[in-house]
Design goal:
Mean pLDDT: 89
Low-confidence stretches: 63-70
Structural class: alpha+beta
CATH architecture of the largest domain: 4-Layer Sandwich
Distance between the termini: 28 Å
Number of helices: 8
CATH class of the largest domain: Alpha Beta
Number of domains: 2
Length: about 300
């Protein structure tokens, strides 16, 4: 096997394809940036299309924002010179805001993995989180930013290529009493089968959303809840619910707001400063067809 390893760039393409399971296409992303006059590269591959709601941590423990594990693998490499403890800290931070914020179906298994390897061949001054000088701090911040971008790009690809997925929805919850409560609320909405099927149908169904909020572990006062929609990444929100009451926005306009393959859902509980985000998908007939299997054909039965 070692004799088949290659240093050619084609090897990355082959790896991305080799690890695919129910993925419809390979997933890889890379970028270059300047670090102290040296060109540094970070690149990665990922796989996973079902059983996606990762929750990885270096210790295996599960903080509130990190549920159990899913069927997702990602391998990242960099030629940056960086100390091992610093690399681990950077990866932990990147994963917390990217891979650990995605969900396709809310289901989980136990083999989630994100690995990062660094060989130091870029020749930059070694990045250490313990360094106190301004240049070292700037280098660390730039490396972290680049790693975050790579992880987010790969994580987004996983959701978009989820089994049967037709919509990518960024769910944002603000105004919770705590960040922990915001996380509970956003996961409840993002994983609700009724909410996800309404996204498939292009239905701006605030009733299902407020129901999912109500059975979450977050404190919710119905007469304070705002629910709205926007184009992906836009701050221009079209509200279907304000202070717990339907707005005068027509149903047709709200339907148009959720008709695009990508859009944002905004929820404000108006009870505090807690906030959280999840990157989610709809739930389609194709997902059900793919996962129900056929008992007369054992080879078709999935995990």
């Amino acid at each position: 096997a070692c004799g088949q390893l290659t240093t050619e760039s084609l090897g990355g393409d082959q790896l991305a394809e080799a690890i695919m399971t129910s993925d419809t296409h390979p997933k890889q992303y890379a970028l270059e940036f300047n670090l102290g006059g040296k060109k540094v590269t970070i690149g990665g591959v990922a796989k996973g299309a079902g059983m996606i709601q990762p929750g990885m941590s270096p210790t295996g423990n599960r903080p509130y924002s990190m549920p159990l594990h899913a069927t997702m693998l990602s391998f990242i490499t960099t030629d940056a010179a960086i100390s091992k403890p610093t690399l681990q800290r950077c990866l932990t931070e990147a994963v917390a805001s990217t891979f650990n914020r995605i969900t396709v179906d809310g289901d989980m298994s136990t083999n989630d993995t994100v690995l990062i390897l660094a060989n130091g061949l870029a020749g930059n001054q070694t990045i250490r989180h313990t360094a106190k000088d301004a240049i070292s701090k700037a280098s660390l911040a730039l490396f972290q930013q680049a790693l975050n971008l790579v992880c987010f790009a790969l994580a987004k690809m996983l959701v978009k290529d989820g089994e049967g997925v037709s919509r990518f929805v960024t769910v944002r919850v603000a105004g919770a009493k705590t960040n922990q409560q915001a996380d509970a609320a956003v996961r409840s909405v993002a994983n609700s089968s009724l909410v996800k099927t309404s996204w498939l149908g292009g239905d701006p169904n605030w009733g299902r959303i407020i129901d999912a909020l109500g059975y979450s572990d977050a404190t919710v006062e119905e007469n304070k809840v705002d629910i709205g929609y926007s184009a992906a990444g836009s701050s221009k929100i079209l509200y279907s619910l304000k202070a717990g009451k339907p707005t005068r926005i027509t149903f047709e306009r709200l339907c148009r707001a959720v008709a695009d393959p990508e859009f944002d859902l905004h929820v404000n509980l108006n009870l505090g400063k807690g906030k959280a985000v999840m990157y989610a998908s709809d739930l389609t007939e194709e997902y059900v067809e793919f996962n129900k299997g056929d008992v007369t054909d054992p080879a078709s039965l999935g995990g």
